[in-house]
């Protein structure tokens, strides 16, 4: 069984937000991702099962996040650090 991976652009489309927001969640550790590098450029790939776990944990809130800032509380909650 192979794992399906999504790009930050695909996740952004799924959530109706910007790819920058998805990358911010990855960099803050809220979502686990695989980093692929090409020179200085980093591209992230997120496993579908990891993404679904995050969505279930957040109650599908990412759809409502849009472009607003992510609070430190939301990041800690997503990491399970409450």
Features:
82 residues, alpha+beta, three-stranded antiparallel beta sheet, 5 helices, 3 strands
Can you walk through the features of this model?
The protein is of the alpha+beta class. The protein has one domain. The protein contains five helices and three strands; from the N terminus they run E-H-H-E-E-H-H-H. It has helices spanning 8-15, 19-27, 48-57, 62-65, 72-79; strands at 5-7, 34-38, 41-47. A three-stranded antiparallel sheet has the order 1-3-2. Helix 1 (8-15) crosses helix 2.
Helix count equals 5
Q: Which of globular, elongated, flat, extended, rod-shaped describes the shape? A: globular
Helix content, binned percent: 40-55%
Q: Determine the structural class based on helices, strands and strand pairing.
A: alpha+beta
First-residue to last-residue Cα separation: 34 Å
Work out the radius of gyration.
Answer: 12 Å
Q: What fraction of the residues are assigned to beta strands by DSSP?
A: 15-25%
**From N to C, what is the helix and strand string?**
EHHEEHHH
Q: How is the largest sheet built, in terms of strand order? A: 1-3-2
Low-pLDDT windows of residues: none
**Number of structural units classed as domains:** 1
Q: Major beta sheet, specifics?
A: 3 strands, antiparallel
Q: Compute the average pLDDT.
A: 81
Number of beta-strand segments: 3
